[in-house]
């Protein structure tokens, strides 16, 4: 007797194993991030792998169904990112499973991450504390002619290798944690502008290829006017092409400059922390530099 095949097939057993992200082909990681609509290129994954560590979730035949990474700085701090589970697996506990494996590796460190809307519930359930909104601003860059700032303190010029120590120090003062190795790696992939008074670096902005075009970040400055002064040349360099910047600033001269430069707010994520809060990292003093743009949502 011939049995008519059913139009439905129910599959309810599934197991995954954890693997080191190092051993995975880049195009498999790329396919994972594409599956959740993220813009990362294979090169962006490569950069992240060189900058941090991570796990993947693999099925029985080695397909990559999840990822989670961490980026340690010094002995006591790390950022967490690239937390992805394949859409078919979501809301089944895989995200929490991956994060618990990450916790085993970053125990006792203060943690910071930028949570998408989809991930907020996961991180809240893991005791991350909400901090600040990040505005993901992007679009086709165009140089605005109006509002050219006059309040900048110094001269803008291109950065070169001899400026790296000053860039690392300024980043550390704003970010709250020294991340020399990461800044050096970013520097090697970026064009940079700095605002100098004499020989002193007062502000800087790096810009590198990422995703659909280029991303500006990190940007460290002491005022909106200074931040605009060092981002403006990147906008000029990329006028007519896709440019992105992730910032905590939602109003003021800097935020207005971004939207007038073709980069309106596209989406938001939420900076969350575990352990020390963002304010605990703040440097005392009115002239402390501020992080005007993140290196990226993943790196902070
Ligand atoms: C965010 C993400 C990693 C969560 O992974 P996951 O495998 O679904 O996570 P889990 O199944 O372990 O779920 C963890 C918690 O979040 C809840 N959750 C998962 N997806 C959710 C969604 N889309 N909306 C609301 N809650 C959701 C789960 O119900 C669970 O809550 P509970 O502990 O109260 O039951 C996954 O949705 C994803 O890859 N999204 C796209 C990429 C992304 O945004 N990554 C986050 C980067 S910060």
Automatic annotation (TrEMBL):
A Pfam family: Acetyltransf_7
Alphabetic keyword roster: Transferase
Keyword Acyltransferase attached: no
Source species, domain of life: Bacteria
Record carries keyword Methyltransferase: no
Domain spans labelled N-acetyltransferase: 16-151
GO molecular function: acyltransferase activity, transferring groups other than amino-acyl groups
Matching InterPro entries: Acyl/Acetyltrans_Enzymes, Acyl_CoA_acyltransferase, GNAT_dom, YitH/HolE_GNAT
Signal sequence extent: none
Protein name: GCN5-like N-acetyltransferase
